[in-house]
């Protein structure tokens, strides 16, 4: 059985000439004929080369792995019970799903308050993030959740003022931060700004802490699908040249006369901007954490990806030693679209194994009496059942679930619907719900009452998309938790799920379904 899909994908705009006769281990057509126009990945690479490394088209899509791993979260089921209630009185008039508490705190001291256990873990300098930011920021702020501004936003901004190699003003970054802050309610949720090696060199953290009032900052060890630094594509020669002058790696060289001539005549249409890779060391990491605290950061987090187990152990240990507010562990399979496509499919520790190892490393530290950083698990979560499973698999350490592609999808759909309403061209499958925002978005009337009519009018449809999507996740999670008789997040435990295969049980330590409750079953039947 092949787990990988090779040589043809919607992500790279490639396909096989034949559909029914594909070589399973190469992905090429079983019979490759002369005269084919090169529609597969190999063929397209023969004339577009490195461009086919990346999902396309850049800037308007998000992408996710097509690899079918042996184990995933569908290999677990949620366990309900008919007995009792945890976190509420075992009374049928009180133990109803709407009374399930989803708000929590994460981090040190007073903590970061959230109304839902959701974090968007790093939406950076890609066009798809910039173009949908209002929807994400306002939607996350209104729902009281956490939103992370990814790396390189200041360095990529043509209007940024950089003097002596340090950021003095970054309009795009300021706008992103302030959009969230302006819509934040009652101190719930947080806007987080991420730092990679390029941001560190530009002094981005000093700027956001001192000038923008950001309280939560995040250090980053590469990315889930990119241990090679972040990449974006640039369609402007002038911007490519500006980024090179700012110290970024830009390919091909935008200052080379032959490259300039080729770009101007249409030989290629996009430059690639690459970030450098960081070099993780214990002493420098701890020093950077102390520098950020001294600069005024109230909360510090770390994001790591699907690296080898030794690197994951370093992340857990360093986060413990530094007493970070939370650690995000992200799978390798998806993002805003500039990871190399094969890297997204074939790189790193698979998701369930990654999360199981993270939980195990946390347990080992706890047994030694060490501080265990709260966990945010990420990587392909989109619906409430997956959220529940992630919280249970990593219990009691997992406090948040990270998701990025699905909130982006909700924002993009909301924005599209808003545009169609303005054009008077509402699609038939949407039109049946109504003719305006209040008719189409099911949460609109409730939110209008809560915010007041004048404020509600300022909420863009993209933000309504995120808000309504999160509303669905909240009610769905409440219903699942009620079925398991767990009425607050802190009561979710590992025995609230079962493994459907022996392999899933062996990897995670979650009970195989036929082994669950064995002792209790014996007591019931033998009493």
Structural write-up:
The chain has 527 residues and is α/β, with parallel strands linked by helices. The chain has a domain at 231-274. It is 40% helix and 14% strand. The protein has 22 helices and 19 strands. The strands form six sheets. The chain has an eight-stranded parallel β-barrel with strand order 5-6-9-10-14-15-17-18, surrounded by seven helices. A three-stranded antiparallel sheet has the order 11-13-12, with helices on one face. Helix 14 (384-393) links the parallel strand 17 and strand 18 (398-402). Helix 14 (384-393) crosses helix 20 and helix 15 (405-423) crosses helix 20 (461-483). The longest helix has 23 residues, at 461-483. It starts with 40 loop residues before the first helix and ends with a helix. The mean pLDDT is 94.
Major beta sheet summary:
8 strands, parallel, barrel
**Into which percent range does the helicity of residues fall?**
25-40%
> Which structural category do the helix and sheet elements fall into?
alpha/beta
What gyration radius follows from the Cα positions, in whole Å?
24 Å
- Cα-to-Cα separation, first versus last residue: 47 Å
What is the arithmetic mean of pLDDT?
A: 94
